[in-house]
Structure formats: C-alpha cells, structure tokens
Amino acid sequence: MDTTQMLIAIAIAFVLGGALAYIFWRERQKVKRYVREPPPPGQGIDPIQVRLQAYERLILLTERMSLPNLISRTNQPGLSGVETQFLLTQTIKQEFDHNITQQIYVSTEAWDAIRNLREQNIHIINQVASFLPPGFTGSDLNRHLLEMMVQNPKASLHNIVAEVLSFEAKKLM
Predict the structure, then answer these.
(1) How far from the centroid of its chain's Cα atoms is residue 142's Cα?
(2) pLDDT tens, residue by residue, 94-103
(3) Phi/psi of residue 127, each to 5°?
C-alpha cells in the first residue's frame, strides 16, 4: 500500500467517523430537547404522563397487596392454614413481580416503600401463621390476620405507602 492509498483510507475513516459523530450528536440533542420540552399532544409520548401512569399502577398494587383486600381476593374455603399462607405470600410476590418494571419511572423512595410493604406483609402473614396451633385452617389464618389489622391498624404500611405515592404523583402535576 503506497502513501496515496494510505491517505485515501485515512480520509475515508475521518469522513465516516465524523459522520457517525455528527449523527450521534444530533440524536443526543433530540433526546435532550425531548426531555426538556415534551412533544405537542399527538406527536409523541409525554414522559410526565408515563410517570403518572406508573404511580397509578403502584397505588393499585398497594391496594391489591393490602392484607384485607388480599384475603378477600384469595379466600378459598377448605384450604389448610399452610396452603393459605403459601397462597397469600405467593400472590403478593406475583403482584410485585408483575409491576417490577414500574421502578424505572418512580423515585427510589417510592419504590423502596413498595418493596417494604411487600416484605412487611409477607412477614406479618408468616408471623401470624407461626403463632397458630398446628393444624390451623386457612379460615383461622385469615381471621387472625384481619383481627390483627383491626386491633392495630398502624401495623400495616399500606396507607402510608399509598400516601407517599399519591404525594409524589401530585408533585408531577
């Protein structure tokens, strides 16, 4: 390869590199502009709307994971206590897993609150089950969980988490 061919190869490389750099820069500018100024209605996705929808979904998740709602949705007469305990904890885990992607749209604090609610409710279910006599029924477990919630309504993070999510959503509006 002689000097002329080498210079031509270098020139082509510079032109291609420059063109790629320009395209990258232009696309980056579009993204920055999009984040600062959402597109007019009908011309794209509004990031604030996406975040508000994530908060809506997480408030719904909070309601679905609250122990009274969870018990009423999963109540199956005739199940043993251990089966009911498993059903309740699995339902919480599945609800959480179904909504796990929402964490990218909400604050770290909001997502931590959701995670804490999940862990707390699973812990409460397991603790109440551990204090019941051997051979307890699913109805016994459900009754004791509901009695505990009535006697100590502040034992659940459900309302606090819902308020945190609502407050953060309102800040976006």
Answers:
(1) 26
(2) 999 999 999 9
(3) -65, -50
